[in-house]
């Protein structure tokens, strides 16, 4: 479990689980907002997919970014 605090969080750190999960041998990642993406052939590919997703989100204008 990740117990690190994120910017702006107050109080005890909430429970966090892995962003990656496997269903039927296929890997997925999930975002804080509940968006699941996949399937990917491996966890490593799901990790690359999440990095790409986060890169694209950072390129969006501030008013369109996911919070």
TrEMBL record:
It holds the Pfam family DUF6316. Residues 5-57 form the DUF6316 domain. InterPro entries: DUF6316 (IPR045630). This is DUF6316 domain-containing protein. It comes from Marinobacter confluentis.
């Amino acid at each position: 479990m990740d117990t690190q605090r994120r910017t702006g969080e107050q109080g005890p750190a909430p429970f966090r689980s892995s962003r990656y999960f496997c269903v039927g041998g296929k890997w997925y990642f999930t975002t804080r907002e509940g968006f699941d993406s996949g399937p990917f052939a491996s966890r490593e590919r799901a990790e690359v997919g999440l990095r790409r997703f986060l890169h694209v989100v950072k390129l969006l204008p501030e008013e369109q970014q996911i919070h």
